[in-house]
Specification:
- It is built from 16 helices and 20 strands.
- The chain is an alpha/beta fold and 537 residues long.
- It has a domain of 124 residues: Galactose-binding domain-like (Jelly Rolls, Sandwich), CATH 2.60.120.260.
- Helix 14 links the parallel strand 18 and strand 19.
- Helix 9 packs antiparallel against helix 10.
- The N and C termini lie far apart (68 Å).
């Protein structure tokens, strides 16, 4: 059967030629082609003539901020409301309330009035001050504090019918004349006097922290990221932006307006878009080397709502008499058996099921060695979410269960843990979190400043041992005020939607101006992505 041998020989010759073709060195096939780029990153690169990202193509100027010289000195004086010359038209005075100082007080200011009453203040030296205003109301009223032209903060005065001292801490004032005013939102507030004292606590904040994450088994990439964050703590703020979806339209807008990219891309897990968000977050890290930040929109187990009032989920009952440390290490089969034996409540089993499901999502990042800024169980002390609504003890038990389950059972060592409980009573063990954060939303056109009061409070809660961050915010923090107030947050995360763009995808200046956005991203004290990579990698 010679034809068989001829056919076999021909087949060997063809296969050998094909192998030679594929193995022969050439300029085109000597290395693997680069991965196909996500459309978002192709769009970003259209500013550049190169094939790689060039976020400095616009070559923006760096903005430097000069801090006035601070002259620390002891100051303490008060001004009686009835001694103010030329009060606003229509302001009335009274003596018909107990325990006022001086000869009388301002009586029942009208609602919705800018600078309804102002104290002219001669500031002796440029430094930080505490401003105390003694006020009274017969019902709860909301009003606002204004210094000069800047609207600083809203506050609610309890309607006790008695004069109450309300203190606003750490307000930077330059030497000279200024007006301290009350803008009324509600009617019915009485004002007795203003007191001004110097504040030195702001200069005592310590920015020295442990440069290693709380998880001793953290991956090298995670340790490196944490060390990079720690190296900038108290020196420069790291930029961050929440992405509403996988299109990254908020980040595209920032790039278009500033020539820069944020360091951190924040997004949510726990929605119907998880797969797209995971892909988008992965692409962000792979194509830009940017940092990934994730929060968990955790619907109450067995429900479709995160809100306590809607879900009706009772965390205390779910964890009643449960050894959370023990069950954190149990397999799903063991947990099912414990449920069958009535050793744990059904809702406890549902909690662990959800934790295991989110672990599966997080493992996709772990498998690619991508470290995550991980912020679960956020805004706990507010009480509106089910994980914070029962009580502080149950919240802390849930945090410990979540930490132990993800860290020890699932061995997710790529997480940098962000505690966002926002209250001393909700504080979790020091060795279970790395960064403490607050979420701060202000009304439209209100001066955001540095948010010194929240910074100082959080520093005291954590005994100065943790980095502090603005995990969510409605506006951009002021670089100048952060430097003045000695309160440079580790990073900020600007929320999406109306806080950056309108329904047509155009920039909206409701909360800050385009100049504010440009100047912050190009400040010499704020790190954009290029800055961060140059310094920290």
């Amino acid at each position: 059967m010679p034809w068989i041998y001829r056919t076999l020989a021909l087949l060997i010759l063809v296969l050998g030629g094909a192998m030679l073709f594929f193995l022969w060195p050439s300029e085109n096939n000597s290395q693997n082609p680069p991965p196909e780029r996500h459309p978002f990153y192709s769009n970003l690169s259209h500013w550049s003539r190169e094939t790689e990202l060039a976020v400095d193509e616009l070559e923006p100027d760096l903005y430097s901020y000069e801090v006035p010289n601070i002259a620390k000195s002891e100051v303490a004086f008060s001004i009686e409301a009835e001694d103010v010359k030329k009060p606003p038209k229509g302001v009335r005075f009274s003596t018909k309330r107990e325990n006022f100082q001086g000869r009388g007080f301002v009586y029942r200011l009208k609602e919705h009035t800018e600078a309804a009453f102002s104290f002219p203040v001669t500031v002796p030296t440029t430094q930080h001050y505490d401003i105390t205003i003694c006020m009274a109301a017969d019902k709860n009223v909301e009003n606002a504090l204004r210094v000069g032209e800047s609207l600083l903060t809203r506050f609610t005065l309890s309607g006790t019918g008695k004069f109450t001292r309300v203190t606003f801490y750490g307000i930077f004032l330059e030497a000279g004349e200024t007006l301290v005013s009350i803008d009324t939102i509600d009617a019915g507030i009485d004002i007795d006097y203003l007191e001004l004292t110097n504040d030195t606590s702001i200069y005592d904040i310590n920015f020295t922290i442990d440069p290693t994450p709380c998880n001793p088994n953290a991956t090298e990439a995670t340790k490196k990221l944490y060390a990079a964050l720690a190296s900038q703590w108290g020196e420069q703020i790291i930029t961050g932006q929440f992405a509403s979806d996988s299109s990254n339209r908020e980040i595209s807008l920032i790039y278009e307006m500033t020539g820069q990219l944020p360091v951190i891309r924040f997004s949510e897990l726990g929605t119907e878009n998880d797969l797209l968000q995971i892909e988008a977050a992965t692409d962000w890290h792979l194509y830009t080397k940017g940092v990934v930040g994730l929060m968990w929109h955790w619907n109450a187990p067995g429900t479709d709502s995160v809100y306590a009032k809607d879900s009706g989920f009772n965390l205390t009952k779910a964890l009643y008499a449960v050894d959370t440390e023990a069950i954190a290490g149990k397999s799903p089969e063991e947990l099912d058996q414990m449920l069958e034996n009535q050793e744990i409540p059904e809702n406890c089993r549902l909690i662990l099921r959800d934790i295991d499901n989110i672990a599966a999502s997080l493992k996709k990042f772990a498998n690619m060695d991508i470290p995550i800024l991980w912020r679960p169980l956020h805004e706990a002390s507010g009480g509106w979410y089910w994980w914070g609504a029962s009580n502080e003890k149950s919240y802390i038990a849930l945090w410990n269960l979540l930490y132990n389950r993800l860290t020890h059972y699932h061995q997710l060592n790529n997480l940098i843990w962000i505690w966002n409980g926002q209250s001393t009573s909700y504080l979790v063990p020091e060795d279970t979190y790395d960064i403490a954060s607050v979420d701060v939303y202000l009304s439209e056109h209100m001066t955001y400043g540095s948010r010194y009061e929240q910074f100082l409070t959080l520093s005291k809660i954590t005994n100065g041992k943790k980095m502090l961050a603005l995990s969510e915010c409605s506006s951009l923090p002021s670089m100048e005020m952060m430097m003045l107030d000695h309160t440079i947050w580790s990073y900020f995360g600007l929320w999406y939607g109306e806080y950056i763009m309108d329904s047509n995808g155009k920039f909206t200046d409701t909360y800050y101006s385009s100049k504010d956005l440009y100047n912050l991203y190009n400040s010499d004290r704020a790190l954009s992505l290029n800055d961060f990579l140059a310094i920290c990698q």
